[in-house]
Amino acid sequence: MPGYLLIESRDPFESTGAARTYELAIQLRAAGHDVALFLVQNGVLAVRSGARRTELDKVIRTQIEVLADDFSLRERGISSASLIAGVQATPIDSVVERMNAGWNVLWH
Amino acid sequence: MTTKQTLTFVLMDAPFESARTTTAFRLLHAALTRGCDVNVFAYEGAVALSFAKQAQHPNAVHGRDVAQEDHPLSRNWIASLMAYAHERGAALNWVNCGLCVDERGVGEAIEGVRRGSPADCWKMAQQSRATLVIPTK
Amino acid sequence: MKVLQIVETAYRATAEEQDDTIIWIAHAMRGASAELGVLLAGNAVNYVTAEQDASGLTLGAWRQTQPPVPAQDVAALIRKDVPVYCIKEDLAERGLLEGKLLEGVVLMSRAQMPRLFAEYDQVWRW
């Protein structure tokens, strides 16, 4: 069964599409796939402690790996100390790693 | 010995319009750093990324002349990554969708970039471990 | 290799391009013998509705002679044996579920996406 890396580049405040990505991550996990969510660009705005977010919490509770691009975080002044629990800052190489492992990688 | 992987990226954004362009190039760099061969199929606006006539300019708002501003140009990014790939014994194979080039009048591409078609996109994908499409909005 | 193409953005530069460029590239890859499926989601579900008409664009003396016809292009994909799926919930949200839809499009719910993905070797999200 292939793994799925869902890349979310948009924030959930301006776009309803981000919530669709989170929902798809949960559905794929429920279907038995390895799933990771990689937040990049404005997608990382959802993971600052105190940010309003409901759907992303569901993803974290489903034990899907939630990764946030370290460059995007730094660019937006989001330090590791201010990340919500369950999210890991990671270099962009983690996308390439999964592509090399044959995962399906979907960008939104 | 690890077998070298080939990855394909499909890009759509024109230069200077979206953060997706910078992220895409960061991914290409990361893939080459890992020793992968990399294919890029540039579709729609992305065919302008390799346009040879992109030029730097000064920045009066910041009081910087051309040299000081050292403005990024995607054509230089591509050239730099091609050299980086070569140093590492890897390949960066960049193909522009020809019809997209024609309609945008950006036929003068930097050396090493070639003209192709969606058939190339499909062929690249077939030969790759994985393909990532980074769509425009 | 079979690849599912997810199309979500609709009417992006369709007048300028005289095509939806993702439906177009699906046709072009099919012409190169690609095995494909197309999933229409988000606003792209509007492509399967009747009575879309982008004709008549006039700018000064210039008149468009080949307006985009997305419904016809989607229908042509089906004729080329490219299965086309459409998300029911997205149709419903847009008030389209009760209307006349393109024949041959397979309606499915969002919850069925993982099962659809499993039928393909790769999934590309445009």
Descriptive terms for the model:
heterotrimer, B: 137 residues, five-stranded parallel sheet, 5 helices, C: 126 residues, Hypothetical Protein Ychn, Chain: A, two-stranded antiparallel sheet
Plain-language structure description:
The complex is a heterotrimer of chains A (108), B (137) and C (126). Chain A has 108 residues and is of the alpha/beta class. Chain A has one domain (4-107): Hypothetical Protein Ychn, Chain: A, CATH 3.40.1260. Chain A is 32% helix and 21% strand. Chain A has helices at residues 17-30, 55-61, 70-75, 93-100, and strands spanning 4-8, 35-39, 65-69, 87-90, 104-107. A 5-stranded parallel β-sheet of chain A has the order 4-3-2-1-5, with helices on both faces. In chain A, α3 links the parallel β3 and β4 (87-90). In chain A, α1 runs parallel beside α2. Chain A is globular, with a radius of gyration of 13 Å. The model of chain A has no long low-confidence stretch (mean pLDDT 95). With 137 residues, chain B is of the alpha/beta class. Chain B has one domain (6-134): 3-Layer(aba) Sandwich (Hypothetical Protein Ychn, Chain: A), CATH 3.40.1260. Helix content of chain B is 36%, strand content 20%. In chain B, α1 (19-33) runs parallel beside α3 (74-87). Chain B is globular, with a radius of gyration of 15 Å. The mean pLDDT of chain B is 97. Chain C has helices spanning 14-17, 21-31, 70-79, 88-93, 113-117, and strands at 2-7, 35-40, 58-59, 62-63, 84-87, 106-108, 122-125. Helix content of chain C is 29%, strand content 21%. The mean pLDDT of chain C is 96. Chain C is built from 5 helices and 7 strands. Chain C has a single domain (2-125), classed as Hypothetical Protein Ychn, Chain: A (3-Layer(aba) Sandwich), CATH 3.40.1260.10. Chain C is globular. Chain C starts with a strand and ends with a strand. With 126 residues, chain C is α/β, with parallel strands linked by helices. The chains are: A alpha/beta (108), B alpha/beta (137), C alpha/beta (126). Chains in contact: A-B, A-C, B-C. Chain A binds chain B through residues 7, 9, 40-42, 69, 71, 91-93, 95-100, 102-105, 107, and chain B through 5, 7, 19-20, 23, 26-27, 30-31, 33-34, 36, 129-130, 132-135.
